[in-house]
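Form 7-S
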Amino acid sequence: MEKLKKDFSVRIYECDRDGLLHFGKLFNLFQEVADENANQIGVGYDYCLAHNIGWVGAGYVVKIDRMPVCEEKFTLYTWPSDKTAVSAIRDFKAVSEKGDTLFYATSQWALVNLETKRLVRMEENLPPYEPIRERVIDSTFPAIPLPERVDHSLTYPVRFDEIDINKHVNNAVYPLWASEAVPQDFRLAHTVKELSVAFKRPAVFGTTITAETQIDGLQSRTAIKSADDGTVFARVRIEWA
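Output:
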């Protein structure tokens, strides 16, 4: 097995106010290359759909050395880096044309039965594959504590455009919500350096989201919850620069 390698160029509509790749775009890029690589090794969307199973994101750890600038070209690599009986680990690394690392991540995925929504064992439901046992971040995806107090909060309606092919909010949206759930002056002064997210359950169209954040220096912890009943959809920890 080889790592998937895909080249990208930052387009102007993908840039933020500082001319850098939008933070939220990272997770779309991760999903794009992960889907392509999963299809290559025979465990992608079409295979899973035909066998009534699906991949569910459990968590990410992302580290950013720097974001690429407008029109900058870079290469994004991904590969399956480990697996257990009921989960798979996938890593990512983005490299500039000069060879320096831009950002990198590790992610954890579970396999579920689409009807029962219960976890199923990988070896009994997927064709065999051997991971490339190389981790860019040696994380065990530890639990992210809930905020102990609420220093800042924002409320969002789930938009129709945020719903993906699985009929729920796409995983790329939750980190973006958390990055916005800080005071405006703080967000203008700081950039995301490192992020950990644990997905708990999917939000759906029609849900009203409350993102509640505790801020301690340059670290924030956010609980993304239902404004109606307090159901926690995701927990996010951000280290800011």
